[in-house]
Each structure stands twice: as C-alpha cells, then as structure tokens.
C-alpha cells in the first residue's frame, strides 16, 4: 500500500487533489480502507484517463459512412447459405478440436441485472422455464453435452474449460451460486472465474467523482476490459497450460447461445482465422445493434449510432440490406491472437463514452442523487480488437436459433424474460416436430407444424428439452418419432432414458 504522502503527490500531479478533501473527517478504519483503494488505482494513468474522458465526451462522434463497405462474401460463412457439405465438414473439424482439449469458452458475465429489476448477477436469473433453470445452468449443461458429443465421436475424454469474467460486485455471488449448485455437474477446477478492472467515473470537466467521503465512484471498464483482465489474472498462462488454442467468447444474456459451437469453431479454424464474429441478419434498418463491416478496408463493428439513416437503409439488388450483419457479441479468438492483443495492442483499444447519472457527495459532504446525467463512464468493447486481426471472418446464423438476449424487465416489448423464454420453447417445439413427433395443446388438439414459429402475438407450446439430452436438436428422432406428446412437455435425462427403454 502506498503512503498517504505518495497518494497525495500522485493525485496532485493528476489534478485530482479534491479526492482527499474529506480525509480528516474519516475514522482511522475508513481512512485506511480509502488509502488502500486509492493505492490500487492506476494513479500514473489517472491524469490521462480523466482528461481523455472529458475530451471524448465533448467531441462529436465522427461520421464513418463515406468509409464503409460490407464484409466481402468470401470471408462469410452462413448456416443458411453455405452448402451442407461445408457445414458438416466445419462441425467435424470443430468437434475434433474440442476432443483434443484445444477449445475453451469465455463468458463475459456482466454486472448485476439492474435493468431486469434484480440486484444479483444476470446469469443467476430464472426466466420462468418449466424447469426453472437459470442462464448459468443452461450454459453449464450445454458445455457438458458438447464434451460428451466430442467424446462419443472421437473416443476421447475431453474438457472444455469455462472462463468467467465478472465485475467486482458479481464475483463473490457467482462463486457462491456455482458452489451451492455443485458447479452444475462440471469439475470446479475447469471453471475459472476472474475479475475485470474497475475505473473511476469522471465529471464533464475531468474530475474524479466521489461517491462518498471516502469512496470513489467506480465502474467496470466495459467488456473490452477482458484483455487487461486476462493479463491481470494470468488467464492466458492458464489457457496455455491446458493446451487451449481456440476460444469461444460470448455474453451471458443470450439464452440461445451455442457453447463452444463446433460449426462456428470449425469454420474459423478451417479458414485460418485468428478472429471471428457470429452475426444475425438485422431485423430492420434502424435496429439498435452494431454492424460488422469494413471501415477503410479494416473489419470492425460500427455502432448503430455511428451510421446515418440513409446508409443503414441501403439495399442490394435483391432487396436485402447492404449493412445487415448484426453483431451479437459471440466471437472466436485464437489464444495466439489474444496474446498478441495483450502484448501489443491493448493501449490502442478505442474508448467509448457512456454518459450516466452518478451519485456523488457535494463540496459540503452531502449525498446527492442526480436527476440528470452528471458523469462519464469510459468503456472498452470486446469487439474493438477486430481491426488488429490478420485474418477476420464472419459467420451468419439464424436469429430464431441462436440469438435472444435478456436485457429488460417483463413489460418491455423486446429482450425480456418472456421473449427469451418463448424463444427457447419455440426452438424446442421445432426440434420435437422435426424429430417426427406431434405435440398436443392443453385441450388435446394436435398443434400445427408452425407451432415452433414464434409470432409476436402468441406464446409457443410449453416444451423444454434439457441440454443434457440434446445440444442442438440432435439425437431426438429415436426417442420421439411417431409419438404424440401432451404439453407441457419437459424432456429431461430421466424421461429420455425411459423413452429409450420403450
């Protein structure tokens, strides 16, 4: 821990001496813990951080439109446009890499589920499925199943390690939750949790915000804080030791995420890519998602706010959107590329400005809850490393099969527990019907073949298939063909064994 004098000097040279204005009023214990917190800050970089934040917030975002072009077709694979033989070959390659212990998954676990109206990590959220499984349990069971599929195909006994990046507020509850649930059947040693850095929130004139008399207002540094966190927590060394060469990186809130998707991994490996992004076709031009495209010939994600309306609405000869590759925070990286970023490019990552309402203490020491935005939180995004890639590829997937994020509380039109739950159950209805079974509604009527098509005005049949039974619809035909199934229908391991025995 730095001495008080050292902290004072560092804050003065950064133009932030106001941070210690209430120090004399603190008791000894609070003073010590405040100095401890300040010692852990990057005091050398504080001046640049504060000045950079104020400057970035004051600068209008530049229009990129004249420099944009779509990602060229030769670097895009697609579940609907690529031929069946290629898709099968990619899946085979992906399963081989998994069986050889060369694949890991990395979860960007995010913060608390504040927008969902809860104060615990998003991954612990239960969207109301018949099984009452949380996002964490669904994801853990998919890892378990993909290991099993690779083992069956290759006679291996493989492991897909699960790296979980949390924030300061979510590490302890996440660890406790996994322990309480016996790590959902996975080995505790194969689940590696680590914390991203927190950075100070800053006023519009570049001053660090005091949240309390002895507490700085801190915020996680965005999911692009991953690259610093990999270094801070020696995660890259752990990956190397385990033989992990390829990483599937994803966000916690997508209920349909295919963990360590062998098709995506096989596609990226086959193309010799060091960096890849899954994309979905944008639903409409103004949909608020970033677009994977090229800027002056370099692959990157352009946020919807950085693209003018007329550019977003451009259409090709077939009527399709020119800029349609919606980013879904679902990425492939080689470990070598992550090492390269950590060693050579981290300082060049773009900083993004988030203007927020940040509670603070005024000059008299009174606690203030602002009614309008008063502070800047600087964030990095995980996709900001795309421009450093030597071989970037994109892989288009179907939204209804692979993307249904959970962001808002129920009552919102999109991205709510209800829409996430319905997306999963509609997918499972499609799997059951594709396996040659029929589903009955609550009145005993046979549901039509379009029962798995999710319309805005209806809920799908209550149908849920455990990931421990099927990863992505495979293996269901021998169990279900020719059967007529009442709903709610929950296919777990126990029922699967019973059906197998019949």
TrEMBL record:
<dbReference type="GO" id="GO:0006048">
    <property type="term" value="P:UDP-N-acetylglucosamine biosynthetic process"/>
</dbReference>
<keyword id="KW-0808">Transferase</keyword>
<dbReference type="InterPro" id="IPR039741">
    <property type="entry name" value="UDP-sugar_pyrophosphorylase"/>
</dbReference>
<keyword id="KW-0548">Nucleotidyltransferase</keyword>
<dbReference type="InterPro" id="IPR002618">
    <property type="entry name" value="UDPGP_fam"/>
</dbReference>
<comment type="similarity">
    <text>Belongs to the UDPGP type 1 family.</text>
</comment>
<dbReference type="Pfam" id="PF01704">
    <property type="entry name" value="UDPGP"/>
</dbReference>
<dbReference type="GO" id="GO:0003977">
    <property type="term" value="F:UDP-N-acetylglucosamine diphosphorylase activity"/>
</dbReference>
<dbReference type="InterPro" id="IPR029044">
    <property type="entry name" value="Nucleotide-diphossugar_trans"/>
</dbReference>
<protein>
    <submittedName>
        <fullName>UDP-N-acetylhexosamine pyrophosphorylase-like protein 1</fullName>
    </submittedName>
</protein>
